[in-house]
């Protein structure tokens, strides 16, 4: 084996921990350090032998890190961090604000080009693997329709929105695909589906003692953008039940391309994920992408990239001959 | 739109006709001509305005064809044709003899390099899209198991094998995945499955009048390599029933990657195809790959390539910015 690919992790929440764990499954990589905006001594990782540094230490370690994986959030962290660090590091991020991807790409592209680096953005599963499946489906079946269903899984954003309601102690929200809608797509009906027809929302809420449950339920169900357009179920449970039954962060979903070839011949492509842990899976994608980024960098390429731009073989530990023999 | 990509089709069976039809769905391409080893006047295509030439006319049309799609068979046609034509044309083939892919790749690589061309081999769905899904699954979930199930669909090779039996007029063989095995994989059991446990084989046979049906059934069920290792059902039907109920060439299947991240978290990736026409779908993949090959050629790349080597964006009619905006 060649020299190992040296990885830095910036940010240590669920995603950062997922990257830490994924790196253990990839023997051609090694983790150099964690970087955090918190007090490093307050961060307890799963890898006591790997140092935790403050974010200020990053730039000085430029030559010791081949790829920096950014594990911050898409709302405020990545729009700032990705272009900033792409000037000095090959980076990988999981920027997932779909409508802002074009501007994020442009900002990262300019930064990466100015520093002679590769900035890989929007890794993960949606955007990420789901996007790739949408692209492939569109290319193979130009006459067809796309369908993406999410779930069953925990939406962090919707859970947070519920927690902000007066009288709520804690909450977990599941996005659930409507089985009947999925069945109609699979049957080749090419239905036109409204937001309400595609997904339902299930909420598990821990309320403060004495809180007005009817008012909380009403506030959830009528919340614009988050719940108003969906059929929403609200279940009040105890804190113990929430911890016992809803501790995980599962997710998943379905991407379908329903198309027609020739003289009306039906063709159906379906891709689905059933993820025990959303952040661990996302992290696993980021780590594979980091390998590809390292190799693109070695070739002297610069600028922003997405999953659409990566020759898939670059994601693998194996060389081309082994891949053709074993997997083609 | 730029100049159209000019495509030649060599061979006009089910796959050639599929390519002819797929090109009609891809407005950035145009078909220049058909080439055949038969008497051109005996070939009736679906496109009367596109000329049919003998294969001898090919070389002289070198400068009028951007990509030549080879639609012959993998047993005897492609091992000869692909390296031969890769010296003078960018080619795309659907070579599907898995065990011989490495040597086919090497032969095409040498030929393509000698002529400064790109030779894309083994396009289609298996090898092809299924291979890509196996690769992605392995890269994202290094700790896991691969499963590929085929069907329900028509196996041309197995149908042909039955037709060669004395007393058989015609036959169609379906490969059928065992639902229970698929269910166990989806449940995360990671079962070890024998050949017999993964697929069954259903045969529909038209026998000659007075033929010994018991002997035919016995010969099918005990045929080494083709049927002996499977639970096989043999149904004798009339020629009319075969034409009425078994005229299509459907196929499909499933690729699953069952993996584990972190501390035993289960993650499942599933890709499936339900194809009304196997050759039309395969042809649609080849056409998308031809676009990528054309672009690689424009970049000055040379040599053999597979689906593992293609940046997915090159498969699309759309440019990078549109893809990021619409599909990422």
Summarize the structure.
2 copies of one chain form a homodimer. With 328 residues, chain A is α/β, with parallel strands linked by helices. Chain A has 11 helices and 14 strands.
Provide a descriptive summary of the structure in words:
The structure is a homodimer of 328-residue chains. In chain A, helix 8 links the parallel strand 10 (199-207) and strand 11 (231-236). Chain A is of the alpha/beta class. Chain A has a 7-stranded parallel beta sheet, with helices on both faces. Chain A has a 4-stranded mixed beta sheet with strand order 8-9-10-11. Helices cover 34% and strands 26% of the residues of chain A. The interface between A and B is large, with 66 and 66 residues.
List keywords for this structure.
homodimer, 328 residues, alpha/beta, seven-stranded parallel sheet, four-stranded mixed sheet, 14 strands, 34% helix, 26% strand, globular
